[in-house]
Each structure stands twice: as structure tokens, then as C-alpha cells.
Amino acid sequence: MIETGSFAVGDDIDGIPTETTPQFIQTALALSAASPVSDPLETETGFYVLELITEQPSEIPALATIKPAVVADLQRARASQAAIDRARAMADKIRAAVADGKTFSETARAEGLEPVTSAAFRPSDTTPDLPGAPLVKERMLSMAVGQVSEFLRTPDGGVIFTVKERTPPSDDEFAAEQDRTRRLLEQQQRSAVWQAWTRDLIQRRQVSL
How many domains does the chain fold into? Predict the structure, then answer.
């Protein structure tokens, strides 16, 4: 059991891994006196069940103190939205040019982009060199060969991509993929059962947190 001190958004929390902290804080801020115990929180480093012990009222700083930060945040938000709008318009232009018979690469270069071709991969493969891999994999499953995606935001920017080719799996690859999928589903089912069991115990107050 870990008992933390008071914390706010953006803080580091002793005993909680850095990569888990944002999920931990988001879950903690959703707790209240009426609902002080969270559902099991699954993270990359394990499961957590959070209980609210005390709340510290927030303080509203003086306008003069926060004005520079507010202005800077607003400017960043406007610049970010403007960049997203430009990227979406760029994706529309590339999609229209490809529909007219131009190649994805030449159209992307004409827009000032440098296209990158990935190695062939399966949806279940780990692809650390693919920007926005989870989003790209999910989107590509519903795309036809040659189709151009919309602009997809990623943690470090965004991507516009096309599916160059799709190779049917061999019988051996198909069997192996089925086995991987089965193991993944079994793992997800075990996780769901564990969470349901833990949630039931919490609701019946048979555990001490």
C-alpha cells in the first residue's frame, strides 16, 4: 500500500513511476467524498486502486500573477490549432492529387513534406520506428491500397499516410497470427475478470485500502 501526500496536475508523486503519473492523477482527481474509491486502474507498471483520504482546496492566484502564463498558453493553443488546420488542408490536397493520378510521394514533396516508407509489418507487430504506430495501425485496417489518410495527430506531431500494398499471409503466418490473437484475447479476458472481482470486493468493502 502506498500513501501519497497532496499533489496537483503536473506533479511527480513519490512511489509512482513517472510514466504512470498522468493516469494516476487523472483517476485521483475524479474521486470525491461521495465516491472515494476508484475502479482498478491498469497501467504499464501494474494495477492500482485509489482511495481519497483528504482534499486540499485549490487557491486562485491573483490575475497579475497568472496573466503571462495564461497569455502564453493561449498563444500556444492558437498556434497549435493553426498548424492542425494547415495539416488537415494539406491532407485534403494530397488526397485530391492522388485521386487525379499523381503519386503520394511527389504530392507530399510538393507540399514540403519528406515521405518515409516503412518496412512491411503486421498489425500485431511492434513498430517503434513508425510515428503514431497505434493510431496508424488502427486506421489502416479500414483503408484500401492507395487510399490516403486524413491528418492523424500523434504525441510528437502528426502523420498523413497511404497504404502502398497489402500482402495476404501464408498459411503458417495466418496460423501464427491466430495464436497471437487468441493469447491476447485470453490476457484481456483475465484482466477483465480480475478487475470485476476487485471492483466487487471494493463495493462490498471486504478489502482495506
Answer: 2
